[in-house]
Amino acid sequence: MKKKLTVSVNAPVVLSFALLCFVALILGFITGGFLTRLLFMTYHTNGFSILDPVRLFTHVLGHSGWDHFIGNMAYILLLGPMLEEKYGSGKVLEVILITAFVTSVINSVFFPSVALCGASGVVFAFILMTSFTSFNKGEIPLSFILVAFIYIGKEIFQGLFENDNISNLSHIIGGIVGGIAGYILNITAKKK
Asked: What are phi and psi of 111, to 5 degrees?
């Protein structure tokens, strides 16, 4: 008897996040970027807008175009399901929300004239979290050190020497959030 092939939803948070990013991208295209600026980008406004607190989190859903979207989603869909399987959907959602909030606040404080849009901070959080998946108590994985050195070093270099309209700081902050989350999640998992 042949076994029927089915499709499973293996990572509901990651898949939902990717779908929301796709919807935000399409809405941005349909409205000529209006909804991207309104809902999916964080920036300094004169005064307070009711949408400011919302954009602290929703800016990670927006992307400037297909290349930006595909680049981020490739990493998120590659790394996210493994993280969601290991740590659970709730913890992955927490990391996404914390990364969105922290990158937005730090960007607003240090670069108030720079708009922030995209899931790159989440990508870097996932990259650094992934390097902790085989973490043992009292040890720092060499893979974590190498990944941190390569990715964060690259972002520092680009931030200092290239003017490419990319928020290297959000990448670095996302990586720090992911590294801390990976460390804490593994420490608490080992205690259980």
From this structure: -135, 65
**Quick one: DSSP state of residue 99?**
H
Sequence spans of domains, the chain: 12-191
Question: What pLDDT, on the 0 to 100 scale, is given for residue 4?
Answer: 84
pLDDT tens-place string over residues 18-67: 999 999 999 999 999 999 999 999 887 776 788 888 999 999 999 999 99
Cβ(116)–Cβ(103) below 8 Å: yes
Instruction: Tell me how far apart the alpha carbons of residues 171 and 124 are, in angstroms, rounded to a whole number.
Output: 6
Residue 86 CA to residue 92 CA, distance in Å, equals: 10
Other beta carbons less than 10 A from residue 157's beta carbon: 11
Q: What is the dihedral of CA 73, 78, 82, 83, to 10 degrees?
A: -40
Question: What fold does the segment set 12-191 form as a domain?
Answer: Rhomboid-like fold (1.20.1540)
pTM beyond 0.90: the answer is no
Close Cβ partners of 89 (under 8 Å, ≥ 6 residues apart): 11, 12, 13
- Evaluate whether 158 touches 168 at the Cβ level (below 8 Å): yes
